[in-house]
Amino acid sequence: GATIGILGGGQLGRMLAMAAARLGFRTQIYEPGDAPAAQVANGWTRAAWTDEQALAAFAGSVDVVTYEWENVPAETLDLLEASRPIRPGRAALRVAQDRLDEKRFLEGLGLTVAPFRDVPDLGALTAALAELGRPAILKTRRLGYDGKGQVRIDDATGAAEAFAAIEGADAILEGVVTFDREISVIVARGVTGETVCFDPGENVHAEGILRTTTVPAALTASQRQDAVLLAGRIVSALDYVGVMGVELFATGTGLVVNEIAPRVHNSGHWTEAACAVDQFEQHIRAIAGLPLGDGRRHADAVMENLIGDDMDRLPELLAAPDTRLHLYGKAETRPGRKMGHATRLTRR
Ligand code: ATP
Ligand code: MG
Ligand code: MG
User: Fold this and answer.
1) Structural contact between residues 326 and 342, judged by C-beta atoms closer than 8 angstroms
2) What is the pLDDT of residue 290?
3) DSSP for residue 311
4) Which of 176, 205, 290, 341 to pair with 24, CA 20 to 30 A apart?
5) Where are the alpha helices (DSSP H) in the chain?
6) Are 282 and 300 found together in one domain?
7) How far is residue 168 from each of residues 139, 141, 176, 208, 344, measured CA to CA in Å?
8) Whose CA is nearest to atom 16 of ligand 1?
9) Which domain CATH number covers 122?
């Protein structure tokens, strides 16, 4: 059987490895740090991202390379790409690694994004604030997740103070979008260009971290159709292979694209409880060149992330009816750390 190489050993890599195993594939994780994924994979290359020898050995042991983390250094990918296909491809990684490139790419497709300005320095921030007004959100161009690397600028926030809060990193300033709800589309595209979407989910965040995803999202039929169509345009423009998460704001004047994630996505975890083929299997099918599966939703569901102290509720969650529990096997519980998720089927 073929072996799938997974860059990144977090919970997403772990769930990909489980899905791969169910389809008869072997998996090899590449991860320098702790790797919950290593518990379920066939092997773990524990080495620095730019360790040439380790990368060569890893490439030699796998047939195709995928990733669960979009910030894998370009140098790592250059070394791997010389000998093995990387799916999804480099085009998607380039736009997803940099918020400025991402915004420009999405705008270039004719999609709506939050108003934004390039902020390379404090002078640019002052000018951008004058143009976009307050409140606004300053976001580092690279490496942000779970709301990290972001600062909201209200009337009382000084520009210098905000710039210091992101340590003077290259950034963009975004206008605050007034939305009715946040949704996401989990879209999959196969090697032949075949594209399927899971039903859009409605997301609630707290302190920048996803708390819950509910399906169905409270959308009109035309909003639902717009969401699915725009996700299809994004993946086809990138000649994408694999699963992508597309985060959207639903507003009174249409959908605004927040960001894209070139990988399986936290807001797609409900699919394991409510679809015959979930996002993880769909991703493995896509990158292995298999036909995509049936992602139709057969239940209504609410997925809740279990973060930090939420783990204290484990007995209650274990006793809850219609609830599928998924824990990531992380040794240590920390505030803000995603420890697992629980998906409750609310109607079937
Ligand atoms: P993720 O963990 O999803 O990668 P992230 O750190 O990349 O998160 P964003 O998705 O940019 O962060 O922002 C986190 C949340 O903050 C969004 O889901 C949304 O709730 C809010 N937010 C971000 N940008 C805006 C905006 N321009 N207008 C309104 N709300 C916003
Ligand atoms: Mg993000
Ligand atoms: Mg986000």
Assistant:
1) yes
2) 98
3) G
4) 341
5) 11-22, 52-61, 74-81, 90-96, 99-108, 122-132, 159-165, 221-237, 271-274, 279-287, 314-319
6) yes
7) 11, 11, 21, 20, 42
8) 208
9) 3.30.1490.20
146 CA distance to ligand 2 centroid (A)?
A: 7
Q: How many CB atoms lie within 10 A of CB 114?
A: 21
Q: Rounded to whole angstroms, how far apart are CA atoms 293 and 282?
A: 6
Distance CA 75, CA 59 (A): 14
Q: Are residues 80 and 8 in the same domain?
A: yes
Domain of residue 49: give its range: 3-86
Query: 149 labelled as ligand-binding?
Result: yes
> What does pTM read for this prediction?
0.97
Report the atom number in ligand 1 closest to the C-alpha of 114.
27
State the pLDDT at residue 147.
Answer: 85
User: Among the three residues 125, 159, 175, which one is the final residue of a domain in this structure?
Assistant: 175
Say yes or no: 126 and 19 in one domain.
Answer: no
Of 69, 86, 103, which one is at a domain's C-terminal end? 86
First-to-last alpha carbon distance for the chain, in angstroms, is 36
Cβ–ligand 1 contact at 326 (below 6 Å): no
Q: What is the DSSP string of 191-224?
A: TT--EEEPPPEEEEEETTEEEEEEES-S--HHHH
Q: What is the largest CA-CA distance in the chain?
A: 60
Token pair belonging to 258: 């927040």
**Residue 145: per-residue pLDDT:** 87
For position 1, what pLDDT does the model report? 77
Which stretches of the chain drop beneath a pLDDT of 70?
Answer: none
230 φψ region: left (φ > 0), alpha (ψ -120 to 50), beta (else)? alpha
Q: Please report, to the nearest 10 degrees, the dihedral formed by the alpha carbons of residues 310, 316, 321, 325 taken in order.
A: 40
Bridge partners (DSSP) listed for residue 184: 201, 247
Residue 228 gets which letter from DSSP? H
Predicted-assembly ipTM surpassing the 0.95 threshold:
yes
**pLDDT the model gives residue 172:** 98
Ligand 1 pocket check: which of 12, 152, 258 to mutate, most ligand atoms within 8 Å of Cβ?
258
Q: Do 223 and 285 fall within a single domain?
A: yes
**Per-residue pLDDT tens for 183-194?**
999 999 999 999
